[in-house]
From TrEMBL:
Native source species: Dendroctonus ponderosae
GO cellular component, one term: protein farnesyltransferase complex
Name the UniProt record assigns to this protein: Protein farnesyltransferase subunit beta
GO biological process, one term: prenylation
Catalytic reaction equation(s): L-cysteinyl-[protein] + (2E,6E)-farnesyl diphosphate = S-(2E,6E)-farnesyl-L-cysteinyl-[protein] + diphosphate
Cofactor note: Binds 1 zinc ion per subunit.
InterPro entries the UniProt entry points to: FTB, PGGT1B-like, Prenyltrans, Terpenoid_cyclase/PrenylTrfase
The protein's Enzyme Commission number: 2.5.1.58
Domain of life, source organism: Eukaryota
Example GO molecular function: protein farnesyltransferase activity
EC category name: transferase
Record key words, sorted: Metal-binding, Prenyltransferase, Repeat, Transferase, Zinc
The gene coding this protein: 109546132
Length: 321
């Protein structure tokens, strides 16, 4: 709460300038908390004004007032606006077209037009387009070709750029783009029947090479552990372990990601399709087993549990302002 700016948005710490990256992180964190008290911390009116102040005439977004302009800004702005139900046509006018202009000759997305394709930027660009229901505007086949070639055949992990080393964080930034592409391919009548990357090799890289002996995950062997790589390596592991309603667990089920939801329910939790359709995104059922353990799939647009995304969307959609 102390990191929220009176002018809207969140800063990295109390008293600092609001910035789109910590705004995205703060909104996601409050959605993960999942209580009305947490939701109500977000000043949606001020947040909208903050996002509008960062919007550029060409459709792009600056990361902060007077700051750099790149595709991260578009994704962060669209993600928080969609999940808090403050997205408008005015806010996102020309944004999809600007994002498409960032797709490179390789097939991936760059931070801006004319720059080098990069895994993090590729996810941001594709996810923003899918939220806007504009995924058809990019060259999906070229993006798929680029993505599959970012998984290294020896290590099993993903690299972020051509001729770079693997890095566990790209397990999500590259791996998380695949479920989004699957939905676009399905609309073209080409729905894949399995993952289009080697999910077993990715799990091997994460579980064997990237676990730190005293806890946490690392970029690659020899690197120190940190929260960032722990988060995105685990998120990529979740993507690898789930394909639609199927599970692909490397080794024994001790390697499966799950959380204890403290109940004995076994019925699926279904999304509110009307709201998801209104916001131009999608959710998925969240299966529970007979022991009350919710399988830890992650929403490919927001990297939050799908049930928490649905719960937050229902709450904010009910706040007609």
């Amino acid at each position: 709460m102390r990191c929220q700016s009176p002018s809207g948005g969140f800063a990295g710490g109390p008293g600092q300038c609001p910035h789109l990256a910590p705004t995205y992180a703060a909104v996601n964190a409050l959605v993960i908390v999942g209580t009305e008290e947490a939701y109500k911390i977000i000043n949606r009116k001020a947040l909208y004004e903050f996002l509008q102040s960062l919007k550029q005439p060409d459709g792009s977004f600056a990361m902060h007032i007077g700051g750099e302009i790149d595709i991260r800004g578009a994704y962060c702005a669209i993600a928080v606006a969609s999940i808090t139900d403050i997205i408008t046509r005015e806010l996102v006018s020309n944004t999809a077209e600007w994002i498409v202009s960032c797709q490179t000759y390789e097939g991936g997305f760059a931070g801006g037009p004319g720059l080098e394709a990069h895994g993090g930027y590729a996810f941001c660009g594709l996810a923003a387009l899918v939220i806007l229901n504009k995924g058809h505007l990019c060259d999906n086949r070229a993006l798929l070709r680029w993505l599959v070639h970012k998984q290294m055949p020896l290590e099993g992990g993903f690299q972020g750029r051509t001729n770079k080393l693997v890095d566990s964080c790209y397990s999500f930034w590259q791996g998380g783009a695949f479920p989004l592409l699957y939905t676009l391919l399905a609309k073209e009548g080409c729905a894949p029947k399995r993952h289009l990357f080697d999910e077993r090799a990715l799990q091997e890289y994460i579980l064997i090479c990237c676990q730190y002996s005293q806890g946490g995950l690392i970029d690659k062997p020899g690197k120190p552990r940190d929260s960032y790589h722990s988060c995105y390596a685990i998120s990529g592991l979740s993507v690898a372990q789930h394909f639609l309603n199927d599970k692909h667990i490397l080794g024994t089920y001790r390697n499966e990601l799950y959380i204890n939801c403290g109940s004995q329910r076994s019925e699926p939790v279904w999304p509110d399709w009307a709201i998801c359709r209104k916001l131009g995104c999608f959710s998925e059922s969240v299966p529970l087993d007979n022991f009350g353990k919710m399988l830890a799939s992650t929403h490919p647009l927001y990297n939050i549990r799908p049930d928490l995304v649905r719960k937050a969307m229902l709450f904010f959609h009910g706040l007609q302002s």
